[in-house]
Specification:
This protein has one helix and four strands. With 118 residues, it is mainly beta. The chain has a domain at 16-90. The longest helix is centred in the N-terminal third of the chain and has 9 residues, at 24-32.
């Protein structure tokens, strides 16, 4: 009896512990979502954004999350190695108060799909 061929779904994998801020994940993601696929590179179409603090060697890839029609009520601040960040910097949601994770041409919210489908 022959073993069934399993279809392997490829997705982008990012190891935060190994991230050096090269932004290759942003480039690949934006190329994957170009029309047609891989025909162009526009980082504004990427579903991944890099939070960078190169002086302190901090790099954090943030994935696009769900769309929310309402803005957050809290405006907490976080301090990482002496630099202050607003909570929006780490938020994955697309919301009316910021342009992060919105399609540049249509303004529609983007959601990370882990570049699934190849």
């Amino acid at each position: 009896m022959a073993e069934k061929d399993k279809k392997k779904i490829r997705t982008i994998k990012i190891d935060v512990d190994k991230c050096n801020g090269c932004r290759a994940c942003e480039v690949i993601c934006s190329a994957f979502h170009a029309n047609p696929k891989y025909s162009s590179n526009n980082p504004a179409r990427s579903r991944i954004r890099m939070i960078r603090e190169p002086i302190r060697d901090i790099y954090l890839p943030v994935y696009a999350g769900e769309y929310t029609a309402a803005e957050c009520m809290g405006r907490d601040k976080y301090v990482l190695d002496g630099k202050e960040y607003g909570e929006c910097a780490f938020c994955r949601a697309a919301c009316p108060s910021r342009d992060a994770f919105k399609e540049p041409d249509s303004g529609l919210p983007l959601k990370c799909d882990m570049c699934e489908g190849e």
